[in-house]
Amino acid sequence: MHARNLMWILWPSFLMAGAASAVVFALVDPLDVVFLGHLQAGRITVYTVGFFIFWIMAALSSALTLRIAPRGVELDEFGDPVE
Question: Could you write out the three-class secondary structure of the chain?
């Protein structure tokens, strides 16, 4: 995978993870989050784990979009597709 492709995947997903974290944690208090019924983590831990989960989800979405995007078509000097 080229560095440019990684940039196209990781940068937008980083921005969306930040936005998703801001929205989710504006509505949910991290101290109210309980794991496995009895484990409670601190605020910073929940913020960090939540951000990375959102980043991974957005990165997978961006990578899938890049993977299924059509490849460029070669054009001749008149702008017609080359067969």
Answer: CCHHHHHHHHHHHHHHHHHHHHHHHHHCCHHHCEECCCEECCHHHHHHHHHHHHHHHHHHHHHHHHHHCCCCCCECCCCCECC
